[in-house]
Amino acid sequence: MAYIALYRKWRPKTFRDLAGQEHISRTLSQAILSGKVGHAYLFSGPRGTGKTSTAKILAKALNCEQGPTPEPCGTCASCRRIDEGSSMDVLEIDAASNRGIDEIRDLRETVKFAPVDGRYKVYIIDEVHMLTTEAFNALLKTLEEPPVHVLFLLATTEAHKVPATIQSRCQRFDFRRITVEDIRKRLQFVADEMGFETDPEALSIIAVHADGGLRDALGILDQCSSVADGRVTKEGVQEILGLIGHEWIFRLTEALAARQSQEILGMLAELLRDGKDLRQILSELSLHLRSLMIYQAAGTVDRMDLYAEPQEILEKQGRLFSPEHIMAIIHRLHEAMNELKWSPQPRITVEVALLSLCREEGTAPSLQEGGMAPIRPAAEDARIARLEAKLAALMAGGKAEIPSGEPERTERPAARSAPQPQTLPPPPPAADSAEGMAVWKDVLERFRAAKKTPVLACVSQGTCIGMTETQFFLHFPGDVLASMTMRIYRKTVEDALEQLTGRPLQLVCSSEDVPPPSPRRPLKEKPKPFLEEEPRMKPDLASLTPEEQANVQKAVDILGDHFVPPPGDESAPPPPEDEAMH
Hints:
There is one protein chain. By secondary structure, the chain is α/β, with parallel strands linked by helices. It folds into five domains: 6-174, 3-Layer(aba) Sandwich (Rossmann fold), CATH 3.40.50; 180-241, Helicase, Ruva Protein, domain 3, CATH 1.10.8; 246-374, Zinc Finger, Delta Prime, domain 3 (Up-down Bundle), CATH 1.20.272; 419-516 and 527-534, DnaA, N-terminal domain (GMP Synthetase, Chain A, domain 3), CATH 3.30.300; 537-582, no CATH class. The chain contains 24 helices and twelve strands. The protein is elongated and about 115 Å long.
């Protein structure tokens, strides 16, 4: 007789044999005893959890010569034919290969015929979500009102792909992932019945690696027993599954904690020479770190479906990391596993991920809100805090106060694209402050009525400090707002002033951020009011190329034609006009 795989030979024959699905076994058994069996059932759940086996058990329970009974005998002709797949009354249809409307039309023609041997004609449609939309529509009416002798059992691993109209016509049962303990017990039972010599730790590794599917677990057990001639050992399971092994993972974890980059790269190279998979390395490392994380949080890893790891190892290595650091490392490892799918050089991706976890303390990974980000040095944090405080003060309309600590950086680029506002001397004695404040209030009201929100948000921070026949003076708490007013909103403000006063007024802005000039500075070097009419620089445009002339004209259109020397050492002589122009 041909060899039968373990997952086929030990497929559940009764409801009692179903592992981890007691809620379904109990419900279906009670329905059979009470005679309230539905006409259509939808079994959904992960692979290898017993959906098709349950469908066959239900078909046997209804057609058994001793039944209907929740305990089919398994020895009568009907039960044997169903187990062998030769029953004329139980039709198992693979929807993945019979997914069209023609197959469903043929099914609708056959449901009207009475059963050959049993009481019910049972249609088991596996992977029913693979049917086309037209096939589902053709099945609707038959599924809703089938003949009294017909039972539909639909099985799927992706219930969300089954139309709601189909689900509403079925009783739905959701199969759970089988726990590691239930799988391990079933594996131990099968191994004892088959006479295998098993290592308990080997069975635990198989149970964890099966990921909730008993069929996968039996397949792995079958493979491992074939290699070692009936002996299932921990080493054999690790070799079959391509696992890295606890010893390597423990060493790699300690090297990460000690930030030993050379040691980590050496171990990675050795694992690759042994033919280990890069993704498997990252996966097992993250699983071990998960064990450390759970042990830190709960003090135990019992009933957590983890690998059998010694408690002393968990306790020792758990002290090497903080909870936040462990979560950050796991996050980075998962990112690397996702990157491996698209990386042209997977080894480089893994090396970068592991080396990034060995960075210096100042740049070690840290789990921040919304993801993982590097820890900035303390000096950088202080500088950012000062800038944030300064910005908050500016937005509030007050003077920015820089917190004490490291002095603020004062480096500026050599070339500026726009003139910066300068601190102006007080307005002349002839300036009328009271009239200017009244005019400025009317200007703001006009902007507010016109809903010029961007202009109002900026210029409303300014305070009128005087007005003459030709000039209007505004003072701002910071050079940022003064500069924005002069560069962007100057013409808008001057137009509003002319409409209100009936005469053209030149806007002059000052601020507190730039210190006033030294009183001992020579008069000819005394800074001029920002955008003052005289003296002006006269650039020699004729000496420029057409492209340079076009750039200068564009700058004039945006910033005006007031050319000023670039900021620099106050004691230095003024630069030539052609340099100032640039």
